[in-house]
Fold this protein.
Amino acid sequence: MNAHALAAALAAVTLMTGCAAKKDEAPAAPAVDLAAEEQAIRNRSAEWMNWANAKDAASIIAIFAPDAVTIYDGNIVRGTAALQADLEKSYADRPNSVISWTTGSVRVAASGDLAYETGEIYLDPDGAAGKQPATTGAFVAVWEKVDGEWRVVADAGTENVKQAKQ
């Protein structure tokens, strides 16, 4: 075999080996649009707030993962069945309550399947005509993307204790 034939054979083997390696490599995962995912969570949170003021427990439950947990001022509720029962009782006990929140920030993981939202919450337990004072507080909600949809896996918050004592 002459030098040119040997070089051509080596080049062919190298080329085929390189192509075979690329064929076996997994394709790169598509980049996650973190800004779009953040906006999707903000939109989902706004839907949740609308349903909370409509006292629509069934729609709210659809936002939560089946094994979700909520923790508010010592009240811990696990799972959507318990959460729905808790919401329905709360709505029956306080039919004029008004709740709102503002999202301060949403941080989405680079993977695009986990995020957390923080913000401020406002609660008037008996509405504008009631005698009970409104309170403010803070919250954190942990979101997970399940089957292409953002769902809450953990939601926690607390009342502003200094304000409540005044």
Notes: The two ends are 96 Å apart (CA to CA). Confidence is low (pLDDT under 50) at residues 3-17.
